[in-house]
Prior knowledge:
By secondary structure, the chain is mainly beta. The chain is built from no helices and 8 strands. The protein has strands at about 5-10, 15-20, 25-30, 35-40, 55-65, 70-80, 85, 105. The chain has a 4-stranded mixed sheet, with no helix packed on it.
Amino acid sequence: MDTKAPTIDVITPASMTYVLNQVVAASYTCADGGSGVATCAGPVANGSPLDTTILGANTFTVDAADNLGHTANHSGSYTVSYNICALYDQNRAHRSGSTVPIKLQLCDAAGANHSAAAIVLNA
Length: 123
């Protein structure tokens, strides 16, 4: 007799940081050792891209149900942040003690500039 809820395994997103607009495919599975899985659904279909357009902490929840109505859910979080794009030659040698101008932009996964005067940076 099936008395247990389905199990959920979320591979992606992992608890990590992704870059703004990075293409990351969701990867999750649901299993049930009894009556079988009736539903297994996340905010996007398995294999579809995650939402990496919202900066900051994001939650990803997968819900599952078996054919007898037992339910389970699994929630995890991931973070989306800017990439740092250098606007100088990082491989160029400089004399010890010299002043080296460093120019950066906040960019997305494709390298598009997202810098703005309102964004405060801390070094």
